[in-house]
Amino acid sequence: MKLIERFFNTTRKHFDAGGRFEKYYPVFESIESVFFGAPRVTQTAPNIRDSLDVKRYMALVIVALLPHYAFGVYNVGYQSHLASGLSTALLPVLFTGLKAVVPVVVVVYAVGFFWESLFAVVRKHEISEGLFVSCALFPLTLPPTIPLWQAAIGISFGIVIGKEIFGGTGRNFLNPALTGRAFLYFAYPVQNSGDAVWTLLTGSQTVPVDGFTGATPLSVAAVTERFGDIHQALADAGYTPLKLLLGTYPGSVGGTVTILSVVGALFLIILGIANYRIIVGCVLGMLLTALLVNLLASESSIPYMHLSPLYHLMVGGALFGFVYMATDPVSAAHMQGARWVFGFGCGALTVLIRVFNPAFPEGAGLAILFMNLFAPLLDRIEIKLRIKKRVPNVG
To answer: Which residue intervals of the chain are DSSP H helices?
Structure first.
């Protein structure tokens, strides 16, 4: 490490003010910060010391996402081998999963870093650490069959349109990863919706082997036709509660495993990274809205209205979105009371979108983006209410 430190110390002068490459200092600083903490510290009082700076904050989120990547690599390979009639031994499965997931991650980070560096150089500021979290989240929301060029376009849209045109990290009102994901869904629906996109076929296979449908739990629930049979339809398709918790079924790269999202939520809440009010509000909003929809359902209602609230929580990537995207410290609500309302709205809208718009069976991504739009208003309302409760000054 001494050799690396000496290299940065001798090179920094070329990127500091007055150096030949002054305008590229943000790129230099971002690379240096991967190895070492910031060399510049506050010289005069007040001096604030905290073990959790922005870099560590973002790094802990990425640490929480690593199990999702490990599971995603395995599940992508496992579902691919099942559909292709190949061996499901661990090593071949992992190799297939790595071939599918790693190129997407590399492309997303390369393109995202390009845009962030470009805007940092033009605006003369350091590269934001939020880029690394956005680029870590985005591949986990994608189908494993996504073309690499679409992954590049999606993260470009999320970073440029979802964040940079509003001034960069700290000023964006939409979650960049979800913005890019929503863009891909509506711009390229063939490669981002339907049952076929969630399973990667390997080798010479062009269609899945007999007995492998590739239908996701959400698609099974959406197309169930007989009244009262929705839970039986899921069971017939092999989607038991245990399987839904473990996430071993076709879906996005890393958003299907419910149990890891629960562990990730506890990890982030205990460390003070994610606000528990938003996550609990999301869960309550989903459960109570699903229960209300159940109570309003009749014999003539669509079967999806009868889906159990707990099933809503376990299927798809809703909990993944609630834990890692609804809690975005920039685009979510900031006032404590507003966070409860924000989270409740995310959960409630997810159920309503799923039930009444079968064309978009997941719903969580759109629900979070929609509530992002209302987050500033919710904060403003709470501030106004708190101001009204103050005791007037005595004249």
So the answer is: 2-11, 25-35, 54-84, 90-123, 130-140, 148-156, 176-187, 189-192, 217-223, 230-236, 241-246, 258-270, 276-296, 309-314, 318-324, 336-356, 364-388
Q: Which residues, 6 or more positions from 130, have their beta carbon under 8 angstroms from its beta carbon?
A: 58, 163, 169, 176, 330
**What residue numbers bound the domain in which 117 lies?**
54-198
Tell me whether residue 33 is exposed, middle or buried, using C-beta atoms within 10 angstroms of its C-beta: 0 to 12, 13 to 18, 19 or more. Answer: middle
Q: How many CB atoms lie within 10 A of CB 12?
A: 15
The two three-digit tokens of residue 378, written as one number = 């919710």
What total of structural domains would you count in the chain?
Answer: 2
Looking at the whole model, is its pTM more than 0.70? yes
How long is the chain? 395
Higher pLDDT, 347 or 238: 347
The Cα 265–Cα 307 span in angstroms is: 25
pLDDT value at residue 165: 87
**In the chain, how long is the greatest CA-to-CA distance?**
84
Is 264 in contact with 324 (CB distance < 8 Å)?
Answer: yes
| Same domain (yes/no): 181, 223 | no
Residue 46, domain member (yes or no): no
Distance (Å, whole) CA 174 – CA 134: 12
Rounded mean pLDDT, 75-95:
91
Q: With cut-offs at 50, 70 and 90, classify the pLDDT of residue 391.
A: low
